[in-house]
Amino acid sequence: MKEPNSVKFIRYKSLPSTNQKLYQLAEQGAEAFTVVWCDAQTHGKGYAGNQWLSSDNQNLTFSFLLKNLDLKDQAYLNRWVANCLHQFLTDWQFPVKVKWPNDLILNRKKLGGILIENRIKHDKIDFSVIGIGLNVFQRDFGMLNATSLACFNVDFNEDLAQLLEQIMSVFSQNYHLILDKKFDEINDYYLKSLFVKDQVATYEHNGILQNGILRGITPEGKALIELENKPIQAFAHKEIRLLY
């Protein structure tokens, strides 16, 4: 089994976007497991064009690089990333859940998010830039339904740099699951950590609020949801919205 490259950290005081910077470095030949992180991110991106907002020196905003993956790895990459973060946080006794497709939830509030940007070349993933935002010390989120590790545990005081090193260690240790294509194992873990799975919840679909139950995830990453009085249907992100 091929071992991942050693992790290389590159820290910036301020960046518009860690994903944008790492994408540029990847185009210039940066190695796998290069990590770009910053104290202040001014134009962070979230999934599907949403903006990621973070207070300076309060949270972790970082991106890391993977290279030369198969196209069929793409559908499971987001699940693998979410699983690694879930594993790390639950080891720290934070009872997080993963909200499909890419959010971390703690006490029914958003703790963090994932954004993956792939460059496809010759039917392969030339490289993947994996961006992560994790609320650590921030306490004031205004009207946003968000939280942080310190909001949940007022005694939490881990150094951000050390926290990032620990997170990347989990990714490095679990990288073999992607390389060895352990997709069933990845999917099984993901399903067990899903927020409101097999629970009645409120969804918005075509402008209408309906009760529904999340039953699973397709191999392509769509959500299998059983809306009220309807058979189970597969939904892509933005086709349906969970209200929580």
What's the β-strand tally?
Answer: 14
CATH 2nd-level architecture of the largest domain: 2-Layer Sandwich
User: What is the percentage of strand-forming residues?
Assistant: 35-45%
How many domains? The number is: 2
Described by strand count, sense and barrel closure, the largest sheet is: 7 strands, mixed
Major beta sheet, strand line-up? 1-2-5-9-8-7-6
End-to-end C-alpha gap? 42 Å
Low-confidence stretches: 46-50
Mean pLDDT across all residues, rounded? 93
Q: Could you please say which CATH topology of the largest domain applies here? A: BirA Bifunctional Protein, domain 2
Question: Helix coverage percent of residues?
Answer: 25-40%
User: What is the H level of CATH, i.e. the homologous superfamily of the largest domain?
Assistant: Bira Bifunctional Protein, Domain 2
Sequence-ordered SSE layout with sheet pairings:
Blueprint: E1 8-15, H1 18-27, E2 34-41, E3 44-45, E4 51-52, E5 60-70, H2 74-91, E6 97-99, E7 103-106, E8 109-121, E9 124-134, H3 149-152, H4 160-174, H5 176-179, H6 183-193, E10 200-205, E11 208-217, E12 223-227, E13 232-235, E14 241-243
Parallel strand pairs: 1-2
Antiparallel strand pairs: 2-5, 3-4, 5-9, 6-7, 7-8, 8-9, 10-11, 10-14, 11-12, 12-13
Helix pairs in contact: 2-4, 2-6
